[in-house]
Amino acid sequence: MHLNQRKIAVLGYGNQGRAHALNLRDSGCQVIVGARPGKGFELAQRDGFTPLPIEEAAQASQVILFLLPDLIIPEVYSQLSPLFSEGQRDIGFCHGYAYHLGGIEKFPKTGYFLVGPKGAGVVLRETFQNGKSLPGVFAIVSPRKETRELALAYAKAVGISEKTLIETTFQEETECDLFGEQVVLCGGILELMETAFQVLIEKGQTPEMAFFECCYEAKLILDVWMKEGPQGLSKKISPTAFFGGLTRGRRLIDENTREKMRVMFDEIRSGHFSAEWKAEAQAGFPTLEKRLQEQSQSELQKTYDRLKGTW
Q1: How far, in Å, CA of 118 to CA of 120, rounded?
Q2: Mean pLDDT calculated for residue range 61-77
Q3: Closest alpha carbon to 271 in 120, 102, 39
């Protein structure tokens, strides 16, 4: 698939949109940025693009990437849907949420693909600029075999490693991504660190000691885990740490915890979470705003601010 012979519209110029657009351009592709007025539009101009209104960018392209926020995509997609029904364009996403849970209309003649890097946009861009690549996933729903070729070419152009490009489905990618965020990456780890930090302070320990033991060292231990694997890490840490983690970690993460994880997964699959998230957005994001305010006044944030730059 000669990707550079097709005009690609990148709709949205935020975290992922900017990285994809820049990497595609550096790979020799014809990129048209479609952006709403505001910071993204202005940033695209500073990066040397001539951004167009979203509808104009879509009309001028054969491949359209929806890299807008998850809850925005269905509305924009609906507005552009007259362009899709004849199947003359391929539609791409970097996350399956809008396709799988957003209720968008699927046209049988249109090719849909998902190409998702396993990393934030800024990491994807930085890795690409250093001549390296990230792991990633892809999924295809299309009546044409050319869509698969297109997706693979697209993945390579944006900086995803061919060795670790995993084929999946829109449903699996969506469910795994949301579950990982909620249970581990943006839920479990962060809540675990903050709660442990608070408990040490309750027990009379200093914030500085609590921070380094429960937060700072979390990254270091994960770096070793990724390099050495589960057994390799066990051999690298002290016997005291190995025994303590083994015997106490399983008291913390027990069958009750696993059952909560199962319930959280079921909420994702059933659509309960997506309905809750949509209601949050319609209400003006009160839960998120409250949390940001709490964090700004938290002892953990204050300790982080004092210590930042000392390591």
Answers
A1: 7
A2: 95
A3: 102
2 counts as catalytic: no
Domain presence at residue 180: no
pLDDT at 105 exceeding the cut of 90: yes
- Local structure of 136: helix, strand or coil: strand
* 70-to-205, 209, 282 alpha-carbon distances in Å: 42, 39, 14
Is the pLDDT at 311 greater than 90? The verdict is no
Positive or negative, the CA dihedral 202, 293, 275, 116 is negative
Structure token pair of residue 86: 């004849």
From 2, 20, 95, 100, the catalytic residue: 95
pLDDT for the residue numbered 1? 53
**Any idea what the Cα angle at residue 175 is, between residues 185 and 226, rounded to 5°?**
40
Do 90 and 155 share a structural domain? yes
- Give the pLDDT mean for 240-244: 96
Counting Cβ atoms within 10 Å, is residue 249 exposed (0-12), middle (13-18) or buried (19+)?
A: exposed
In which domain, by residue range, is 17 found?
3-168
Residues forming beta bridges with residue 10, ordered by sequence position: 33, 65
Q: Is residue 151 domain-shared with residue 208, that is, in the same domain?
A: no
- pTM (predicted TM-score): 0.90
157 domain-assigned: yes
Is residue 52 within 8 Å of 33, Cβ to Cβ? yes
Query: Angle 308-309-311 (CA atoms, 0-180°, nearest 5)?
Result: 100
